[in-house]
Amino acid sequence: MDEEYEVIVLGTGLKECILSGLLSVDGVKVLHMDRNDYYGGESTSLNLNQLWKKFRGEDKAPEHLGASRDYNVDMMPKFMMGNGKLVRTLIHTDVTKYLSFKAVDGSYVFVKGKVQKVPVTPMEALKSPLMGIFEKRRAGKFFSYVQDYDEKDPKTHNGMDLTKVTTKELIAKFGLDDNTIDFVGHAVALHTNDQHLNQPALDTVMRMKLYAESLARFQGTSPYIYPLYGLGELPQAFARLSAVYGGTYMLCKPECKVEFDEEGKVTGVTSEGETAKCKKIVCDPSYLPGKVRKIGRVARAIAIMSHPIPNTNDSHSVQVIIPQKQLGRKSDMYVFCCSYSHNVAPKGKFIAFVSTDAETDNPQTELKAGIDLLGPVDEIFFDMYDRYEPVNEPALDNCFISTSYDATTHFETTVADVLNMYTLITGKQLDLSVDLSAASAAEE
């Protein structure tokens, strides 16, 4: 271990593994360490007995739930946008050869007290029960505008400069009502609050285009994909990738104490009396608690069920977004469900998550609106965890710290943090113009 590395990565969470993979592919000499004896950190995947031990404090789960090894329960479950930046990043590093993906069945939104499919094409808008007949026409026109919009072709702009026009102003041009604005902003553009309404509309339009392109890409009924056996496969795939490029992985390294010089710049990491020298550190907040601050908490429920979520067309994998306004909350609530069709549970079993930014100290009550959508559950676990963000100045100490995972059930915010960190570490933008056909979803 007494060697010199350019970068030492601490923690094998998803963000750290992606960064370690990207840096290895760039030819950077990386040492990757974790205090745990398993991959994944906060974003690990648990079998049933591990889940039971974590939440019930007992070693063995009841037998009627099936074999423990048939469960792969992700602690940070998030779907991937089929055409999104994470999939492009996976292809860029060629890690897709270690993974199999499968399209997700459904993308839904909770509006006016009901779970409804998210319409995104002009055709779907016309069929959607979310809107009345006149609103359907207006929404259809808006979706057509978004579909045809090309940043480089002013003819498609309808005389509007979307870098100046706000989302609110753009929507007003098409006369859309509040419920439509709600599901477009939160379930299609995947904004986590309503600030986007007062910001330039270009971001929202590009997010809507990404959703529509992702939907078209797998000819599925949702824009999302998810790896078979769950996200626990991802950190291990990146560990393999890093090894191919000469990176070194060490699990089970206690303490992992970061060492600094007199100027406060990082010099290395000490574990079990040995120090590995390095120029830069990449880590999750738990490795440098003095350089982060708490920014909130996430409340979540994990349920094991024997049926799909009602009103989702029997979807075996599905996301339901509940926009904040529909519940009179400050933040959205997310419902995620996956099942044996993605090999994350035994045949006939479904795993559902309900998560949100906590506004109280009582997850049971706070998550009730989401849990009510699940129908009967076999088992349910409740959990709260703190979220942290870095407050250090990486230019001064060479420490690059990721932000804790948020409550969303899709990867868009996570990958934005990763790409931002990559630019801070390397000083360059990651080129994501890749051949998307390299990651095709597994067939039924």
Put simply, the count of helices is 14
What portion of residues belong to β-strands?
15-25%
Query: Would you report the number of β strands?
Result: 19
Task: Tell me roughly what share of residues is in helical segments.
Answer: 25-40%
Principal-axes geometry comes out as globular
Q: Main β-sheet, in a few words?
A: 7 strands, mixed
End-to-end Cα distance: 45 Å
Uncertain segments are none
Q: Please state the CA-atom Rg, rounded to the nearest Å.
A: 22 Å
Oligomer state equals single chain
Mean pLDDT: 92
Helix vs. strand class: alpha/beta
Task: Describe what you observe in this structure.
- The protein is built from 14 helices and 19 strands.
- The protein is an alpha/beta fold and 444 residues long.
- The model has no long low-confidence stretch (mean pLDDT 92).
SSE topology:
Layout: E1 4-10, H1 14-25, E2 30-33, E3 45-46, H2 48-56, E4 73-74, E5 80-81, H3 85-93, E6 101-103, E7 106-111, E8 114-117, H4 122-127, H5 133-148, H6 167-174, H7 178-188, H8 201-217, E9 224-227, H9 233-244, E10 248-250, E11 257-260, E12 266-271, E13 274-283, E14 292-305, E15 318-322, H10 324-327, E16 333-339, E17 350-357, H11 363-366, H12 368-371, E18 379-390, H13 394-397, E19 399-401, H14 412-426
Helix pairs in contact: 1-3, 1-9, 1-14
Summarize the structure.
With 444 residues, the protein is of the alpha/beta class.
Essential attributes:
14 helices; 19 strands; 444 residues; alpha/beta; seven-stranded mixed sheet; globular
